[in-house]
Design brief:
- By secondary structure, the chain is an alpha/beta fold.
- The chain has one domain: TIM Barrel, CATH 3.20.20.
- Strands 1-2-3-4-5-6-7-10 form an eight-stranded parallel beta barrel.
- Helix 1 links the parallel strand 1 and strand 2.
- The radius of gyration is 18 Å and the shape is globular.
- The N and C termini lie close together (10 Å).
């Protein structure tokens, strides 16, 4: 299986790929630019192309993640920045040979019309994708529910993808902590989730998994990641999840705490041993 982690690009895209290989990963995720800014980045194309070549030569799969301020349902005075930033992220990811760019499902707080958030998000996606012709996809990520139930259910993600003008340019990224915290997966009902996702054609468009345990119990609606052996999701439940036949050759990326006593290198080794 393809286990990896989130890796810094402080030393460049190629350096990140080399670091992934060094720690025993065969996949990784990165922020294409400053994770706290929507400013468009003039990036080093040679470095990005060398990263793509290195990943291809060493059988590494990669995904990018949009900066934290990215909001698909932003107000009119901000949405232009979001759109330009997301197009910039897609361009960088494409040059790096990545599968796509992960973006969180948008949540519009205090909306009088419950459908307004969905409408805004679809409009934003249509605007971005109408201007994008590369191979990198936008990967919609499920929410944990900390701002309400919007974006927590498989049905919503599938419906938004179907309602865009360019569904072929959209895929999904599944976060296990979010799935658990929201209560969609309670640890014991994976077969039900698997059946529902298969029926809705969700897994056919799943391109990556954020493999995280949860600090808080299911239905807590709290997004706090824990290391695989040490969270509320039992190791046996994670093993059942990973053993599912619905996952093809996709990256499973850790976004967990990494410290000297249990680094991402240790955690990747642990996962490889867990899965035999």
């Amino acid at each position: 299986m393809r286990f990896g982690s989130h890796i810094s690009i402080r030393e460049g895209y190629l350096s990140a790929a080399r670091h992934a290989k060094k720690i025993g990963a065969n996949a990784f995720q990165y922020f294409p630019k400053n994770p706290r800014s929507l400013t468009v980045k003039e990036f080093d194309r040679h470095d990005a192309n060398e990263c793509a070549k290195y990943c291809k030569a060493h059988d590494l799969l990669t995904i990018a993640h949009t900066p934290y301020p990215t909001n698909l349902v932003a107000d009119k005075d901000q949405i232009g920045l979001v759109i330009d930033s997301l197009l910039n992220d897609l361009e960088i990811a494409n040059e790096c040979g990545s599968i796509g760019v992960v973006v969180h499902f948008g949540v519009l707080k205090n909306a009088t019309n419950p459908l307004e958030g969905y409408q805004r998000m679809i409009e934003t996606l249509n605007e971005v994708l109408s201007r994008w012709d590369g191979e990198a996809l936008i990967l919609l990520e499920n929410n944990a529910g900390k701002s309400g139930p919007t974006g927590t259910m498989v049905e919503e993600l599938v419906q938004v993808r179907q309602l865009t003008d360019y569904p072929e340019k959209l895929g999904f990224c599944l976060d296990t902590c979010h799935l658990y915290a929201s209560g969609v997966w309670d640890g014991d009902n994976w077969r039900e989730v698997e059946s529902k996702g298969t029926e809705l054609d969700y897994f056919a468009h799943l391109k990556a998994v954020h493999l995280n345990n949860s600090v808080y119990p299911t239905r807590s609606m709290k997004d706090r990641h824990a290391n695989i052996p040490y969270g509320e999701i039992k190791v046996e439940q994670i093993k059942e999840f990973l053993s599912s036949s619905v996952f093809g050759d996709i990256p499973f990326v850790l976004e967990t705490p990494h410290e000297n006593n249990f680094s991402h290198e240790n955690e990747i080794q642990y996962l490889n041993e867990l899965m035999g």
